[in-house]
């Protein structure tokens, strides 16, 4: 993405609607990276960050499409899944150096582990009597960066469950018969990886952690931002995380965690549901040396 394009965008649009948390079908979203950018434009957004789970595979395609659109801000990103004391912690990384070899090798290991995990979960579900036909198994094998959401959608399509939430509750959550533990990256490891690749580590949706004490503890790590604006965050949450951001001099980010359009039939947050203040984008770009 040209530096000048981002700069002009910030100057021309005084109130841009920018969603810094979206997913494409490079991970567990529905739209292709190219279609995601087009969809964002159609819905009045001035920019997005693509933050697929544990992969950078969709960045080049999305960035190429974004470069064709006047004054559209595109932020390359990633969402890394980590674990602390058996609690899942998601960490967003923005402006990763896509050519960083160490980062790419680690992501490749994580991707392989995701595939292995999916196979283990399918086997566990088969062992309790859930039958997958050959076409379904073949389609699952083709997924390059699989996650539990992919399997949840399959169970819904097979009418084993009525909803995605039911799939997680009955079969795919910790302690359920189809659950298999994933490759464990610690928060500290994820932050280090992002920073080593010249990226900006941000604590994702702290409200989902459901522990103010743990969020407070995580602030000891070298985060550079916190996702203040998120669909499930209440006004009190927003005030609380804004205060934390100010106390620790962190970037304030936000996004919808978009995965699919409403017409897909999948319960999901609307793209652009949460946007960020222009000051956050300016600070992020300056922090990553994208403005003089």
TrEMBL record:
Q: Do you know which CDD domains this protein is assigned to? A: PHP_HisPPase_AMP (cd07438)
Leader sequence range is none
Q: Where is the Polymerase/histidinol phosphatase N-terminal domain?
A: 18-84
Q: Which residues cross the membrane?
A: none
- Example GO molecular function term? 5'-3' RNA exonuclease activity
Query: Do you know which Gene3D superfamilies this protein is assigned to?
Result: 1.10.150.650, Metal-dependent hydrolases (3.20.20.140)
Mind telling me what this protein is named? Polymerase/histidinol phosphatase N-terminal domain-containing protein
Instruction: Name the species this protein comes from.
Output: Tindallia magadiensis
Q: What is the lineage of its organism?
A: Bacteria, Bacillati, Bacillota, Clostridia, Peptostreptococcales
């Amino acid at each position: 993405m040209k530096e000048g394009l981002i700069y002009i965008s910030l100057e021309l649009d005084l109130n841009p609607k920018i969603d810094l948390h979206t997913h494409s079908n490079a991970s567990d979203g529905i739209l292709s990276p190219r279609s995601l950018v087009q969809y964002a434009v159609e819905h009045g957004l001035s920019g997005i960050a693509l933050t697929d789970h544990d992969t950078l595979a969709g960045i080049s395609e999305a960035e190429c499409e974004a470069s064709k659109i006047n004054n559209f801000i595109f932020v390359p990103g990633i969402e890394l899944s980590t674990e602390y004391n058996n609690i899942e912690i998601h960490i967003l990384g923005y402006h990763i150096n896509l050519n960083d070899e160490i980062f790419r090798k680690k992501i490749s290991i994580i991707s392989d582990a995701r595939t292995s995990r999916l196979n283990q979960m399918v086997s566990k579900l088969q062992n309790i009597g859930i039958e997958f036909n050959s076409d379904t198994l073949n389609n699952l094998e083709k997924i390059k960066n699989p996650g539990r959401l992919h399997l949840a959608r399959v169970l819904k399509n097979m009418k084993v469950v009525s909803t995605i939430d039911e799939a997680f509750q009955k079969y795919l959550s910790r302690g359920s018969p189809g659950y298999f533990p994933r490759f464990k990256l610690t928060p500290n490891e994820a932050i280090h990886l992002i920073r080593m690749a010249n990226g900006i580590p941000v604590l994702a949706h702290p409200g989902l952690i459901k522990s103010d004490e743990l969020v407070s503890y995580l602030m000891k790590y070298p985060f550079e931002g916190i996702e203040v604006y998120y669909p499930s965050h209440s006004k009190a949450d927003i005030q609380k995380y804004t205060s934390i951001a100010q106390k620790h001099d962190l970037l304030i980010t936000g996004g919808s965690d978009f995965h699919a359009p409403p017409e897909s039939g999948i319960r999901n947050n609307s793209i652009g549901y949460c946007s960020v203040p222009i000051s956050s984008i300016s600070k992020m770009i300056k922090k990553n040396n994208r403005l003089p």
